[in-house]
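Late entry, evening session. Most of the bench is empty. Finally got around to the prediction I had been postponing all week. Sequence below, unchanged from the version circulated by S.P.
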Amino acid sequence: MIPVGVIEDHPLYRAALTRLLAGEPDIEVDGVAESVTQFAARRQHRGGVVVLDLHPREMSGAAAVLAVAGMGHRVLVLSAHASQPDVLNALAAGARGYLCKDSDAEEILRAIREIATGNNFISPSLASFVLRDRRAAPAIELSLRERQVLSLVAAGERDQDIAATMHITIRTVRSYLDRIRDKTGRRRRPELTRFAIEEGLATSA
C-alpha cells in the first residue's frame, strides 16, 4: 500500500481528490488537510507521497514543499499555478513531481505511483514548457557517464543504487558527482534534479 496524504485548501477539490485516492486498491489515504500544519498533526505515516497544492493556507510555494519534504515525504505538487518560476522553485525545493490541476485522474494516479517507486514525474506539457522557456545559459559539457549519473540522481536513486545500476563503485559515483557539481555549480540533489530537467535528462512521464 502507498500512503498518500493530501494538502489542499479548496474543500471541493480536496474531497474529490480524496475520493479518487480512496478508490484505488494500492493506495492508503493518510492525512487530508487544508494546511501543512494541519497535515503534520493528522498524518499517520512518515514517508509516502503527499499531493500538495502549491498555495495552501499558512504557507505556500517553495516553503510548503520544503516543509513537507522535510517531514520525509515525497511531494507531488498539484497546482493551478504553472509558471516557470513556480515549477522550477518547487523542484529546487525538493518536489518529486509537478502537475496542473487540469490533469485527469489517470495522470494523477500514474504520477503518484511513479513517485512512490522513487522516480520523478513532470507532465510532458510542463517539462516542455520548462525546456522551452528556460533562460539561455552557456553550454555545460558532461561526459556520457556523468549524464548517466545525473539522470539517475534525478530519478531519486541513492549513491549505492547508482553504483549497482552502472556496475561501478560508490566511490566512483561520488567522484562523478563531484565533477558534475564542479561543472554545473549545483551542489544539492534538488538543484541537480532541476538541472537534469532543464537538460532533458530526467524522466518526465
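Two things to note before I forget:
The beta strands are 2-7, 27-33, 49-52, 74-79, 97-100, 121-122.
The chain has two domains: 2-133, 144-198.
Will write this up properly tomorrow.
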